[in-house]
Structure formats: structure tokens, C-alpha cells
Specification:
The structure is a single chain. The chain is mainly α. The longest helix is centred in the middle third of the chain and has 29 residues.
Length: about 260
């Protein structure tokens, strides 16, 4: 996996995928910046200006943008990762290499877009004078957790998609459900005021934990985190452990099925 030829192939796949993504587009790479901004504009107008979500959370607009950027990374990685093996079927039939490189290259490409989007979040944060925590240096650890979770899910989806293409629309529905079960467009306090138990269940979702922890570190400590909401120490570790368990299980499932990918495709 980490041989020199495999590292070179991974690098070339990342470069090729990044170039092809915006090929034929009039404004090209600018879309990687405009996409999160346009989505943020719609969400901000509907949920912040009209529905008045997050009135009790300082800089909720920036927190909303930050959450969307993180969620978009998960969506992009899993959607493209799911179809990556099928779309690279010609390459699998011509070359012999660890097939997981294809899925990893997709994840790295999404990570590049995430870094670009983070620049936009940083600029918005400066303009709004957000209250960045002194523990902000923990943010990269949350990105590692997010990357591990997204990659693990991608491995599982890619393995299933090779045999069952119906998983595509099913995953699209699950992503929509997951988005509404994650405090992305609404603050956790909104759920806490209705039902504290439901709020605790929602925060056991790794994406909810990652987004809220990141908001706590980079926008305002008012954002409620999993470790603040759940007092039970063993239970509070669940969302932090799940991403790495999913990565290990996903990789094993992928490796077990990878030998037959070329002939099935």
C-alpha cells in the first residue's frame, strides 16, 4: 500500500480527479468556493433570518457555515467514494494495485476542497470577530476523526455499490435523514428545550459531535458539546470511537471484496 509506485499512483489520481471535477466549467475551481457560499446563503436566509434559529448562540451564522462545510465534506466523500470503484473500472482491469487507493484519492480530493472552504469560514470568522477558544489547536484532531469516519463509510458503500447500484438513491435518502438528525441548521439548545433525552441521543451521532466540538473551538464556547451534555464518561466516548471502528470495519469489508471488483465491474 505504501510502496513508492502506489504513492505515485495516489498522487496522480488526486491530481486527475481534481482537474476533471471542474473540467468544462466556465468559472472552474471557483466553484469549490462558490458552492458552500451559495448553500450558506440559502440556509442563512431561510433558517436564521426568517425562522430565527440560533438567536441564543453568538455568531450562529458563522457556526452554520462551519457546520455546512463539514457536512458537505462527509456528503462529498461518501457519495463520490461510493461510485469510485465502478467509475475506475477501466483502471482496475489494466493495472494491478491496491484498490483502496481509488477510494482514498477521492477522500483526499474532498479534503482539499474542505481546506479551501475553511479559508472562507476563517474570513467570515474574522469579519464577525468570533470568539475562538484557546483550545482551537485540537481542531485538527476533529478533522482526523471526520476523515476517518467519512473514509470508513466510503469503503463500505463502495463495496456494496459494485454489486448493488440501488444503494445510490438509498444513501441519498439516508444523507437527508442524517442531516436533519444532526444539529446543522438548528442549535442543539432548540432540541434540549423540547426533550433533553432526544438531544443526548442526537449528540451520540459522530457528525453531530464533530460539528458541535468544532463550533465550540472555532466560533463560540456557547455551542453545546457532547461532553457537556452527557455526564456518563463511558457513554460520552461513543461518538469519538465510532469513526475509527467504522474505518477498521469498512477497510476489512473492502479488502475482503476487492479481489472480485474487476470481474464484477
Amino acid at each position: 500500500m505504501f510502496e513508492r509506485k502506489n504513492r505515485i499512483l495516489l498522487k496522480e489520481l488526486v491530481k486527475t480527479d481534481f482537474k476533471l471535477r471542474y473540467q468544462g466549467s466556465v468559472i472552474g475551481y471557483v466553484w469549490s468556493i462558490l458552492k458552500p457560499l451559495l448553500l450558506f446563503a440559502v440556509m442563512y436566509i431561510v433558517f436564521v433570518r426568517f425562522l430565527r434559529f440560533g438567536q441564543d448562540v453568538p455568531h450562529f451564522a458563522v457556526a452554520l457555515l462551519l457546520g455546512m462545510v463539514l457536512w458537505n465534506f462527509f456528503t462529498e466523500t461518501t457519495n463520490l467514494g461510493m461510485m469510485s470503484i465502478v467509475s475506475r473500472g477501466d483502471l482496475l482491469r489494466k493495472l494491478s494495485f491496491p484498490t483502496e487507493i481509488i477510494v482514498i484519492s477521492i477522500s483526499i480530493n474532498a479534503l482539499i476542497n474542505l481546506v479551501i472552504s475553511f479559508v472562507i469560514v476563517f474570513i467570515f470568522g474574522l469579519v464577525n470577530q468570533v470568539d475562538v477558544s484557546s483550545y482551537a489547536f485540537f481542531a485538527p484532531l476533529l478533522l482526523i476523526e471526520l476523515f476517518a469516519f467519512s473514509l470508513g463509510v466510503s469503503f463500505i458503500l463502495a463495496s456494496i455499490y459494485v454489486k448493488f447500484r440501488d444503494i445510490g438513491p438509498i444513501w441519498e435518502v439516508l444523507l437527508q435523514v442524517g442531516m436533519y438528525m444532526t444539529p446543522l441548521i438548528y442549535p442543539v439548545t432548540l432540541v434540549m428545550n423540547k426533550d433533553l433525552f432526544i438531544a443526548k441521543l442526537l449528540m451520540l451521532n459522530p457528525m453531530a459531535q464533530i460539528i458541535q466540538d468544532m463550533r465550540y473551538l472555532l466560533t463560540s464556547p456557547v455551542n453545546v458539546t457532547t461532553w457537556q451534555l452527557i455526564n456518563n464518561k463511558p457513554v460520552v466516548m461513543i461518538p469519538y470511537i465510532i469513526p475509527f471502528i467504522v474505518l477498521i470495519i469498512g477497510f476489512k469489508i473492502f479488502k475482503k471484496n476487492s479481489k472480485r471488483f474487476a470481474e464484477i465491474i
